[in-house]
Structures are given as structure tokens and as C-alpha cells.
Amino acid sequence: MIAWLPSAVTIAPNVVFAAEETLSVLDMKEFVDPMGLFYIQVPNSFYTLRRSAKGDLPDGNGQGRRGSSIFTAGNMAKAELIAVERFPTKQLLEENGIEATGDLSTFPGLGESSAVASLIVARREKGSATTNTQIVPDSLFLSADGKELRFRLRTEIDVQKPELLMEQYGVSALYRITSAKATLRSNDGYLMAVFASGLERDYLGPDGVALEHSVSSFEVVDRAELGAI
Asked: Superfamily assignment of 10-224 in CATH?
């Protein structure tokens, strides 16, 4: 069990999002995983890509050419992206020198919510140049059954010429907001997570409502119930 925060992940200023009433006008489409692992709704304008090529898919340790990613959707023109990742639950602990014993079927069994979220973020950004991602305070939410963990992230984007940014947009820094949901409801020894992100200036408007809706819509298939494990 873990009860600490990796130093690379800190707490960000709180973020206020657009009202949920915008949901009534969202233009969404549903993606049903052809491999039977999950389904999700994404904005209709987003491309969708389910990884299937050998080497692209994560191996038994949850690693592939694209990390643990098995699905992406996005709008490249607006730098908005949705990604689904899948890896063995025990890897989250063992990669950090933590013995994976006891009940690993719920997040409380893994450790404190903030510590678990930090490990998920650190694993996702391993090998990335990004080092300034922060967990948004008060965004952590654990479901009643302990199998779903939600949180938001705020990442400062490296800007080469902040003076030009100030001249054009009136700000000296750019940020990316990410909404995340991790789940253990597949009940097959794997953790699955969805990450939806966009530039802060877009995320605080209708685009953010759509991305948040995508995260909320993400559901995994209970493979134990199907007898698939």
C-alpha cells in the first residue's frame, strides 16, 4: 500500500469549469471497443484510433511503443486529445518498489487516493519531457465501491517566447488541463484509465464540457463476469 506523493507531482491552483447545462447541445459519437474492453463517447469531430498492430499494443507489463495506450481520439487542430490506457494493476506498485500484496481490486487497497493518482500520472509521463504536471486540488473523487478514481491535472506548457504570447493573447504562460478517470471495474487484474486534455483557454469553455463528458461516459467491461479471465 502507498501513502505518499512522488515529488514530481504537486498540487495546482483550483480550476473552474463551464456549466454542465452545455451538455444538452454536445455533438458526440459512441466508440465501442472491437476487442470488447470498453466503450466511450467522444466529440463527433474527433478522429478515433484503436491500436492493434503488434508492438503498439501494451505487453504483459503494460508497455508498448505507445506506452500503455490502447486507444486515442482527438482534434489535432485544437490540440485536444483523449487516450485510454491499460496495464496490470500490480505493475503500478512493483515499478515503484512497492510489494503488490493484499486486495488489489479496489483503490483503497492500493493506497491513499492522492498517492495512487500520483503514481498513475508518473507512470503515464515516464520518459516524457513534461515535469510540471500538478494535481488540481479538490478534484480527487473515489466512488463508493472503491473501484473508480477521478482527478484533474494542470500542466504548464513550455513556451519559447513568452513575450510574443503576452503580445498576442495577453498571457505569459500556457496550460493544459487533463481530466482523468481510472477504474478497476474490469475485475481482471488490470487498471484502465482515460485521459482527456485540451488547452486551458478551450477547456474552460464548451470544449471542456465535452471532454469531461467523454471521461464520464468511459466504461469498461467486467471481464470476470464474462468469464474472460
From this structure: Mog1/PsbP, alpha/beta/alpha sandwich (3.40.1000.10)
Q: What residues does each domain of the chain span?
A: 10-224
Per the CB < 8 A criterion, the answer to whether 124 and 86 are in contact is no
Instruction: State the pLDDT at residue 158.
Output: 78
Separation of alpha carbons 91 and 60, rounded Å: 10
Long-range contacts of 50-58 (CB under 8 A, 24+ apart): 58/85, 58/86, 58/87
pLDDT tens column, 84-131 = 999 999 999 999 899 988 999 999 999 999 999 999 999 998 867 656
Q: 20-78, pLDDT tens digit by residue?
A: 444 545 799 999 999 999 999 999 999 999 987 665 566 666 665 556 899 999 999 99
Give phi and psi for 9, each to the nearest 5: -115, 115
The residue whose grid cell reads 500538478 is 134
Q: What average pLDDT does the segment 160-182 reach? A: 79
CB 185 within 8 A of CB 222: yes
